[in-house]
């Protein structure tokens, strides 16, 4: 395996990034024209209706006028760009023995650089991205100390960003609770105890038709808030078609994860998504993953069950499922297989 892209001085295209034919992106993927764009400034009763419908019909939507300051979103992108542009030696402290961490085991809260791949019957292939991953809640000293020292404003900017995005997530989750008839806080406490930032850097790629930024996947967690500014993201709609998500300046893309399917007993389901590569431009995205703690028991909410509506999943510990999720690539939702009823 070669070094991660930003750390490699070579322009050579390593074979290990070529996706197997069946995983390569189709040429003609339409841009979604009906993906909900929700103005968070509207009254709660309107939001409950709009967001609930978006969660049921799509599992993915964009939010605007959401209260996270635009200049902070811009600053966050800027410090990440500066980080990824640092010379390789400066980033080496986020590696393991000089090598990138590979996303196949438990994720650390401490900042590390990861590469990511997919196992297939023909072997493993890798995605065209580097990710600086770290926890971002609670913002205790030990955690923040693990974040990059360079650029010097990283900790301040990303610290503020983490708090603002968390507030937004809690607001959206409480709106969803209202729509589902769940007590306020049901989704926005234990189920989001951890907050992981995936700061993704996708360099220009010589072969976008054969190489993926990230392959199709469900996010394993409850819900993700994604900041992006260059088209690359696609999701699999309910008819099994890939649809492109056009970036809107200063919006967040909200993506339901696999844990959402379980907690709502499939009333609102997670969505499979992937990222293309771009031949000429690099791309940075900031994905904030709201995640249960390892020890949290995940199960369908009792309020959504009845004699007619029996559970589709048996309870499990989040950490156990997460292990399955990372190790089993046989299907998008293979991590849930042991718990399906
Ligand atoms: C992810 C992800 C999307 C993007 O990090 O899980 O899906 O646009 N990222 O980078
Ligand atoms: Ni994702």
Named once each, the bound ligands are: N-oxalylglycine, nickel (II) ion
How much helix is in the residues?
10-25%
What's the SSE pattern?
EHEHHEEEEEHHEEEEEEHEEEEH
Q: What is the CA-CA span between the terminal residues?
A: 39 Å
The total of helices stands at 7
Uncertain ranges: none
Mean pLDDT, as a whole number? 93
Q: Strand fraction band?
A: 15-25%
Going across the biggest sheet, name each strand in turn: 1-2-13-10-15-8-7-4-3
Number of strands: 17
Major β-sheet profile: 9 strands, mixed
Task: Estimate the global geometry from the Cα principal axes.
Answer: globular
- The radius of gyration computed from the alpha-carbon positions, rounded to a whole number of angstroms, is 19 Å
Q: What is the structural class?
A: alpha+beta
Organism: Datura stramonium (Jimsonweed)
InterPro entries: DIOX_N, IPNS-like_FE2OG_OXY, IPNS-like_sf, Oxoglu/Fe-dep_dioxygenase_dom, Plant_2OG-oxidoreductases
Protein name: Hyoscyamine 6-dioxygenase
Domain Fe2OG dioxygenase: 193-292
Walk me through this protein's architecture:
The protein has 341 residues and is of the alpha+beta class. It has helices spanning 44-57, 70-84, 88-91, 141-145, 154-180, 258-263, 318-327, and strands spanning 37-39, 60-64, 101-102, 112-115, 117-120, 123-126, 130-135, 194-202, 212-217, 223-227, 233-236, 242-244, 252-256, 273-276, 283-291, 297-298, 316-317. It contains 7 helices and 17 strands. The strands form 4 sheets. A 9-stranded mixed β-sheet has the order 1-2-13-10-15-8-7-4-3. A hairpin with a 5-residue loop joins β11 and β12. α1 packs across α5 and α2 crosses α5 (154-180). The model has no long low-confidence stretch (mean pLDDT 93). The structure holds N-oxalylglycine and nickel (II) ion (NI). N-oxalylglycine (OGA) binds next to β8, β14 and β15. This is Hyoscyamine 6-dioxygenase.
